[in-house]
């Protein structure tokens, strides 16, 4: 089953992005993954859950939240 997982994570520099994509690449059963630096958004498709993606990012010290939770946060 293919899911599309979108999470918000701080993409401050190319090194961060490289580290994040390297960690995501290790998740089993993923098809595609992409980082959008403008939106601070990581998109992963495949047989994966939002929780799995967030857990992998937390392991490398990145704070990630589900994209659907971003809309409910005030812009301050």
Structural class: alpha+beta
Overall geometric form: globular
- Gyration radius, in Å: 12 Å
Q: How much strand?
A: 25-35%
Q: What is the tally of beta strands?
A: 4
Write the H/E string, N to C.
EHEEHEH
Low-confidence segments: none
Number of helices: 3
Helix content: 25-40%
What is the CA-CA span between the terminal residues?
37 Å
- Average residue pLDDT: 92
Q: Looking across the biggest beta sheet, what order are the strands in?
A: 2-3-1-4
Biggest sheet layout: 4 strands, antiparallel
Summarize the structure.
With 76 residues, the protein is of the alpha+beta class. The chain has helices spanning 14-25, 50-59, 67-70; strands at residues 3-9, 30-36, 41-46, 64-66.
Structure, described:
There is one protein chain. 13% of the residues are buried. A four-stranded antiparallel sheet has the order 2-3-1-4. Helix content is 34%, strand content 30%. The mean pLDDT is 92. The protein is of the alpha+beta class and 76 residues long. The protein has helices at 14-25, 50-59, 67-70, and strands at residues 3-9, 30-36, 41-46, 64-66. Strand 2 (30-36) and strand 3 form a beta hairpin. The chain is globular and about 30 Å long.
How would you describe this structure in keywords?
3 helices, 76 residues, 4-stranded antiparallel β-sheet, single chain, alpha+beta, 30% strand
Furnish the topology, listing elements before pairings.
Elements (H helix, E strand, L loop, with lengths): L2 E7 L4 H12 L4 E7 L4 E6 L3 H10 L4 E3 H4 L6
């Amino acid at each position: 089953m293919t899911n599309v997982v979108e999470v918000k994570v701080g993409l401050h520099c190319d090194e961060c992005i490289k580290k994040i994509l390297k960690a995501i690449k290790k998740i089993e059963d993923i098809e595609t993954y992409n980082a959008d630096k403008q939106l601070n958004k990581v998109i992963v498709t495949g047989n994966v859950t939002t929780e799995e993606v967030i857990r992998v990012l937390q392991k490398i010290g990145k704070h990630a939240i589900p994209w659907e939770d971003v809309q409910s946060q005030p812009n301050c």
